[in-house]
Amino acid sequence: MVANRSASRLVSISLVTLLAAFAVCAPTRAEAQTVVVLVGGEPITNLDIEQRTKLTTLTTHKAPPRQEVLQELIDEKLKIREGKKFGVDLSASDVDGAYSGMASRLRMNSDQLTKVLEAQGIRADTLKQRLKAETTWNALVRGRYKESLVVSEKDVQTAVASDAQPEQNKSFEYRVRPVVLFIPRGAAPAVVEQRRKEAETLRGKIQSCDDAEGYFRAMRDGTIRDLIVKTSADLPGAYRELLDKTEIGHMTAPEVTKQGVEMVVLCDRKTTTADTPAKRAARDKLFVQKYEAKSKAYLDDLRKGAMIEYR
Predict the structure, then answer these.
(1) 3-state class of 263 per DSSP?
(2) Is 113 strand, coil or helix?
(3) How far, rounded to the nearest angstrom, does the alpha carbon of residue 20 sit from its chain's CA centroid?
(4) pLDDT, tens digit, for every residue of 256-283?
(5) What is the pTM of this model?
(6) Alpha carbon of 188 to those of 145, 192, 260: distances in Å?
(7) Is the pLDDT of residue 156 over 50?
(8) How many domains are there within the chain?
(9) Which residues form the domain of 9?
(10) Is 66 among the domain residues?
């Protein structure tokens, strides 16, 4: 009897403790789901604000003001609604594709990106919603205002004349063929070093693209890729400098990558009338300025006509 009474008392205490715990947690959940703003009838909750704050903090390493986060969420609702109005309505697969693309740029897959977010208490849908709004808005502004976003050649020339460095006004066309000496995955450092030395030896022998073709076509553990044609404006500055210093017919220095030991054979290099790095940079800068001005004016108009109800 004593044991039974003790057991009953323990059960009662446990139930009281459990109920008390739920009583403490329940308001937190309810508060998280509290609607803060209605944008055209669509709710933004405390949970939305909390999630976006975490995402912004993760990407900028700085906690944003609550009002700034709220305005960003309101703007996204307006952008997506406006997109639907003009037929720009991203499907779930479109958004997943954008999410996967972002993961690839971060050198991971979608599942890995999701785990990184979850480790910080962020749902994948939080990032996907932002990507959906950004992609929708970009397509909408570019589509509706295509003509007014065109950058004239005269404006480009004016910008180049005032900003460009002399070396950025030159443009070359490069014809290259990438080559690879394969290295087995997980190979020992000694094996990697041996392959690097082999690459250096080949680099000293090859005097033309035809030479490279002959050597690498005969190799079982190496290959030569198809011809690639790029202009100065297509390449990062460091890579342009590397090719400019390489003699025609010769190869760049070996670089160890995931594929193996990689080099590039410079088959030809000649001046071209195509975009120079300075013109490409000026055109991109002027386009961004036009886009941002048009985007801001468009969004301001949407805000003025929107039904936004604060709770």
Answers:
(1) strand
(2) helix
(3) 46
(4) 998 899 999 999 999 887 778 888 888 8
(5) 0.67
(6) 56, 7, 13
(7) yes
(8) 2
(9) 1-32
(10) no
Any idea which residue has 């715990």 for tokens?
21
Helix, strand or coil, per DSSP, at residue 242: helix
DSSP one-letter string for 165-229: -GGGG--EEEEEEEEEEE--TT--HHHHHHHHHHHHHHHHH--SHHHHHHHHHT-SSEEEPPPEE
Q: Which residue shows structure tokens 């997943």?
A: 96
Token readout for 311 is 């709770």
Q: Are 131 and 160 in contact (CB under 8 A)?
A: no
- Per-residue pLDDT for 27 more than 70? no
H or E segment at 264? strand 260-271
Read off the amino acid at residue 296: K
Predicted pLDDT at 258: 86
Residue 117 has, within 13 A of its CA and on its CB side, a CA count of 23
pLDDT at 193 over 50: yes
Q: What is the pLDDT of residue 272?
A: 83
Residue 219 inside a domain? The answer is yes
Q: Are 67 and 124 in contact (CB under 8 A)?
A: no
CATH for 264: 3.10.50.40
**What is the Cα–Cα distance from 88 to 90, expressed in whole angstroms?**
6
